[in-house]
């Protein structure tokens, strides 16, 4: 199918992009186009205008600093996945990005576009949510920082308002003695996952579990984040943590998998990722 007719703007600066978005409130940002173009072609979206940000200078940045990794709106999945600087500061990013679609899609699609698209089966929303990251939004009215916990509102629905452009996303650094892991189950590699888990475990100076969090994709309409430190206890009983996770979720069935199968997958992946993350935390603690 062909897309419905739309107007097209191709700004070259951020100010021009924000002016274009203010002028066409029912317009949509076009970034990598890996989700938007299929939606247009299937006529599941019919925006009046596309504001193509691909020529806007200064948005294709990846900054890794002590505090975390800031990813600009035009940084492609592949660039972030292959950044050694980003991997050193927050390894969970690259680990999860390897599961996003296929290499050709990752060469074009953007990390920030994935967040703005807010697909509950997407890897990046779950990673941002479990890390407690933020999205920086800009419009002709000004800027604001949106915490991940407020950003995802429902399936394909984010807190971005008409006229707003997500200019960057911030993924906080891994604290000392912290390990991370990512795993998902998909029917074929590169497909959207039936269920997936991003896990983060932090140990205290006595090597007891001080934090254990899991972020889930494919379970409900927004990324689900569970604090599992209490269920795991200081010694890290990951089977108990997984049982608690299974009891704490209410997965949504669809044509690909039923609720009980998704709950089962989430439990298996929770135990697996938490134990891998804990082993990495021990290594980082020098044990
Ligand atoms: C075959 C196939 C398999 C895929 N598998 C996966 C997968 O397993 N996991 C996964 O997570 N994704 C998957 N995707 C989607 C892919 O990762 C997309 O790249 C990503 O979801 C969106 O990024 P994009 O830059 O292409 O955004 P676009 O398609 O350009 O935009 C997507 C949406 O976000 C909005 N948007 C984009 N950027 C901004 C911005 N800076 N500010 C405000 N709004 C913005 C657009 O207006 C649009 O509504 C798949 C895609 C295909 C075609």
Automatic annotation (TrEMBL):
**Alphabetized GO MF terms:** anaerobic carbon-monoxide dehydrogenase activity; FAD binding
Does the record carry Flavoprotein as a key word? yes
> Keyword annotations for this protein?
FAD, Flavoprotein, Oxidoreductase
Listed EC numbers: 1.2.7.4
One Pfam family matching this protein: FAD_binding_5
Coiled-coil stretches, from where to where?
none
Residue stretches making up the FAD-binding PCMH-type domain: 1-176
Give the source's domain of life in one word: Bacteria
InterPro entries with a match to the protein in the record: CO_DH_flav_C, CO_DH_flav_C_dom_sf, Diverse_Substr_Oxidored, FAD-bd_PCMH, FAD-bd_PCMH-like_sf, FAD-bd_PCMH_sub1, FAD-bd_PCMH_sub2, Mopterin_DH_FAD-bd
Return the protein name: Carbon-monoxide dehydrogenase medium subunit
């Amino acid at each position: 199918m062909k897309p419905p007719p739309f107007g097209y703007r191709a700004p070259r600066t951020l100010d021009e992009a924000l002016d274009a978005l203010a002028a066409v409130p029912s317009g949509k940002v076009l970034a990598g186009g890996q989700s938007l173009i299929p939606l247009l072609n299937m006529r599941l979206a019919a925006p009046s205008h596309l504001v193509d940000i691909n020529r806007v200078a200064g948005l294709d940045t990846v900054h890794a600093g002590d505090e975390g990794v800031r990813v600009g709106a035009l940084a492609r999945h592949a660039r972030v996945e292959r950044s050694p600087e980003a991997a050193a500061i927050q390894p969970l990013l690259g680990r999860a990005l390897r599961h996003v679609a296929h290499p050709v899609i990752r060469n074009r699609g953007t990390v920030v576009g994935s967040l703005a698209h807010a697909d509950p089966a997407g890897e990046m929303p779950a990673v941002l949510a479990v890390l407690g990251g933020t999205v920086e939004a800009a419009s002709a009215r000004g800027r604001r920082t949106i915490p991940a916990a407020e950003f995802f509102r429902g399936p394909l629905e984010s807190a971005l308002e008409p006229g707003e452009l997500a200019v960057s996303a911030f993924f906080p650094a891994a604290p000392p003695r912290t390990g991370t892991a990512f795993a998902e189950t998909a029917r074929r590699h590169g497909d959207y996952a039936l269920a997936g888990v991003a896990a983060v475990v932090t140990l205290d100076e006595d090597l007891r579990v001080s934090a254990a969090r899991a972020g889930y994709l494919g379970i409900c309409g927004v990324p689900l984040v569970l604090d599992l430190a209490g269920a795991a206890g200081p010694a890290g009983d990951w089977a108990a943590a997984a049982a608690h996770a299974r009891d704490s979720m209410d997965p949504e069935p669809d044509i690909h998998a039923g609720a009980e199968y998704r709950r089962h997958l989430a439990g298996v992946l929770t135990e697996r990722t938490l134990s891998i993350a804990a082993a990495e935390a021990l290594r980082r603690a020098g044990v």
